[in-house]
Amino acid sequence: MNSLLCSLALAATVALVAARPQVYSPQAYPTQDKFIPIVRYDNSPPAGPNQAYSFSFETGNGIQVQEQGQAKQVGNEAPVAAQGASAYTSPEGVPITLQWYADETGFHASGAHLPTPPPIPEEIARAIATLPKLVEEPQPIAYSAAPVAPQYYTPTPAPYNRYGRK
């Protein structure tokens, strides 16, 4: 009887293992295989002494991008100063327009969709204007050309008591 139960348990285990799917098949997600054409493309590669360039393009789904720039002499370096804009429609249907420029001061973007800080309340602005200047101007230090004699101090030893009492 005991060997019969062991045989049945072994057969059930083998059947469960054999019935398990042997190949991993990930769930298929819908993809967008729609081709989006480039309907307009203009490109002027860097040319001339200031390396001026420009390009722009527009896609079939309404994305528009344009950029122009040129090398700008700043000291011994010639960083590129560029400006441009892009426009598209967000998945929620909201038109997004981004204007930007980049130069030696960094990248600066503006657009109605970008967050902006709230205005400073009028009371706080007046308080800031009336605050005294917190940074003090450094005062010139009086300098004496006469040499100062060095001073030497001799340390006095502290009294030592073996038991911590004086």
UniProtKB/TrEMBL annotation:
GO terms for molecular function: structural constituent of chitin-based larval cuticle. Pfam families: Chitin_bind_4. Residues 1-19 form the signal peptide. Keywords: Cuticle, Signal. InterPro entries: Cuticle_Struct_Prot, Insect_cuticle. One of its GO terms (cellular component) is chitin-based extracellular matrix. PANTHER family: CUTICLE PROTEIN, CUTICULAR PROTEIN 47EF, ISOFORM C-RELATED. This is Endocuticle structural glycoprotein SgAbd-2. It comes from Cacopsylla melanoneura. The lineage of its organism: Eukaryota, Metazoa, Ecdysozoa, Arthropoda, Hexapoda.
